[in-house]
Predict the 3D structure of the following.
Amino acid sequence: MLREHFDVLIIGAGLSGIGAAYHLQRDCPSKSYAILEGRENLGGTWDLFRYPGIRSDSDMYTLGYAFKPWTAQKAIADGPDILAYLHETANENQITKNIHFQHQVKSAAWSSKDSQWTLQVARRDGLEIAEYTCNFLFLCGGYYQYAAGYTPDFPGLDDFKGQVVHPQKWTNNIDYKDKKVVVIGSGATAVTLVPEMAKTAAHVTMLQRSPTYMLSRPAIDAFANRLRKVLPAKLAYDIVRWRNVLLTMFMFDRSKKSPERMKKYLINQIKKRMGKDYDVDTHFTPGYGPWDQRLCLVPDDDFFDALKNNSADIVTDHIDTFTATGITLKSGRQLEADMVVTATGLALEVFNGIALSVDGVAVEPAKTYMYKGMMYSDIPNMAVSFGYTNASWTLRSDLTCAYVCRLLKHMDATATRQCTPRLNDPSMGESAWFNLSSGYVQRAKGKLPKQGDKDPWMAPQNYLLDIKNLKFGKVDDGTMVFTAPTN
């Protein structure tokens, strides 16, 4: 059996994993590390998802890394351009050579006696098992299962004679030209798919149970492109990045403090685009408040244009049953379809799907509390890279990586080898890890870690507060316990 040891093992070679490797190389150059990636390619989400129109739902000035300016014309970028950006980042910084592809981590066991993790890893489609050990484990594999997305148990689905595909399983040979397509869902994936498929399909219907808040903005940021012509790329990037951060924070703050006013603003913007005769109340007015779920971004009005030119439409109803030729709705209406795309969400996953144990005791995620939104109570020497629910993923990922490096350097400086968040406050209350009402969050509620109701056991979902806490706050804060090996 292959056995290898590293100071740090990073799980996942996507947006978070590549960022983690960069920070380790820059801030902790003496540390050895490797990235264990279960798939054959780097890129994570941006390599996995291949459905038509795949793009970012955040601007690339905040979804891009703080250390690498985004210089392409489009601020709302296509999937292939984002993947190219990740490849470029990995190659420029000689990170690719440290990625171990087709290495799927099955379990990780912590030993306090040895101050290290032991990982069982299936290599090359499970044909062999390898053992890796490390002093620090950094989970950067995202928050959803890569094996499959979520598809409800629709009545009569087996009777349908057409093609059914989940966007997470999209392949290049799927043909929808001149076909009647029903896209089930109303989230970011559906809103991306509909206008792109409508270009060549006979017709596309988005079937939703309830509407989603949508916000339109240009795919190209003209200000950013002009600024880059007169300023150095990094300075121009930083200015636009901060502008977008502050604008997003302002919108989120208004959404929470004045939800009715923000709701009216968002709905009025759609009414202006769709015209007075369109039934915006039925198809675009959610029953929840703004930012109780993520807003859907619509670049260049493409979704609204598809509706207005009648290449697509929205049906707001519930499914009664599938039939051989389509879908029967609760209202009795029949939707004919040659193809159904189930844009029905993700299957959330904790600990990147890895079975964890500490000193021989299996870890139950739902019994743990999250420390600073990145570590877990009573689990030593492990962090997770997790983004914002109300802003770009990478904003928080960058801060998490920098904090992990601070933590590692503190242990070196104090000659300690173990760092463990300990919850010793009996008055600590509980709150949900996610502050979203989205379906994929609610489905996984029973297996998610908890948050407390005060620092450092709750993540504020606020970039400015996280800069204060993670970049400048004390590492040895009285909650994080540092110890030397026990042997």
Residues 233-257 form the longest helix (25 residues). The domain at 3-146+347-483 is CATH 3.50.50.60 (FAD/NAD(P)-binding domain). The chain has 13 helices and 25 strands. The two ends are 26 Å apart (CA to CA).
